[in-house]
Amino acid sequence: MYPFERYVPAGWFLSGGDALAPGSLPRQRIWVDDFAIASRPVSHGDYVTFLNDLVNSGASDQAQARVPRLTEPGKRSQKAPIYHWNPARSRWEIPKRAAGIVLSPQAPVIGVSWFDAVAYCLWLGARSGRPFRLPGSLEWEKTARGVDGRTFPWGNHPDPAFHCMQDSHLPDPGPPPYTAFSVDDSPYGVAGMGGGVQDWCADPWRAQGPSRRGSRAVSPSAHRAADAMQTTGAPRRVIRGGAWNLDERGCRSAARSAMSAGRTADNVGFRVCRTLTAQDLLAPT
């Protein structure tokens, strides 16, 4: 495993069962196979590295198509790139502010579609030789809640000082670096699942919940995500987690929502995940 990854062991966990969480499913005991997930969301710094690697490999058009985009406040115009192109250095750069949002290399990336997030996972997988992908909705929920059905990653009591949400009195609009709220750490050591930005998940939205085989979660596949990149009219995809401009109900770990795979938002980013192999489990730590 990589230093930025955290191990989530196979086993049962308590999913759903939170009447105050929008979109929560009924309480269920679900088996999830083991997997590795990034300890933090993908940052602007991570994402601009991806774009500039595409540029350097001769895929400038692909990079331009994947630049994060948001609508300027008070305007109804088409969404515009929030990164700046530096022609003198032939690279994309992160400005200090765009679309009314303060940006920094350490803050979670926003303004990316589900397709952009999958493209990043495929790029990271090609570089590393590991099948990186987005987490499944049930993988995400187990990572956030552990096995005891807690309401938030840190426990059962809300506090705007614990996670980045609308009542946290942020000095600037937009998600700060994930280190700004150290209490927002899951039982597996994964940061920023109760606030900051929501995460794209691999699953298509289904009101009745993700696909399962009985009580067993179906692990997403990096190959299926790659195939979905070639289709048009993709269904809405699940988004999970709290965000800097959501209320306490929206930040509860059982909450579920969805967005069209091609849309972007100022409070939606992503984190990477992967299915483990026997080689991972036998490797020395």
What do these coordinates show?
The chain is an alpha+beta fold and 285 residues long. The protein has a single domain, classed as paralog of FGE (formylglycine-generating enzyme) (Alpha-Beta Complex). Helices cover 20% and strands 19% of the residues. A hairpin with a 4-residue loop joins strand 7 and strand 8. Helix 1 packs antiparallel against helix 2. It is globular and about 55 Å long. The mean pLDDT is 94.
Brief summary:
With 285 residues, this protein is of the alpha+beta class. Helices cover 20% and strands 19% of the residues.
Summary keywords:
285 residues, four-stranded mixed sheet, paralog of FGE (formylglycine-generating enzyme), three-stranded antiparallel sheet
What is the fold's blueprint, element by element?
Blueprint: E1 5-8, E2 11-15, E3 28-32, E4 35-38, H1 44-56, H2 60-66, E5 69-70, E6 80-81, E7 84-86, E8 91-93, E9 97-98, E10 101-102, H3 114-128, H4 137-145, E11 198-204, E12 212-213, E13 216-217, H5 222-228, E14 237-240, E15 257-259, E16 268-269, E17 273-275, H6 278-282
Parallel strand pairs: 11-16
Antiparallel strand pairs: 1-4, 2-3, 4-17, 5-6, 7-8, 9-10, 11-14, 12-13, 14-15
Helix pairs in contact: 1-2
Compute the number of structural domains: 1
Q: What is the global morphology? A: globular
Query: Do you know the CATH topology?
Result: paralog of FGE (formylglycine-generating enzyme)
Please tally the β strands and state the result: 17
Q: Radius of gyration, Cα only, in angstroms?
A: 18 Å
> What's the CATH architecture?
Alpha-Beta Complex
Parts with pLDDT < 50 across at least 5 consecutive residues: none
What string gives the helices and strands in order? Answer: EEEEHHEEEEEEHHEEEHEEEEH
Number of helices: 6
So what's the CATH class? Alpha Beta
Main pleated sheet: 4 strands, mixed
Residues in β-strands, percent = 15-25%
How far apart the termini lie comes to: 8 Å
Largest sheet strand order = 15-14-11-16
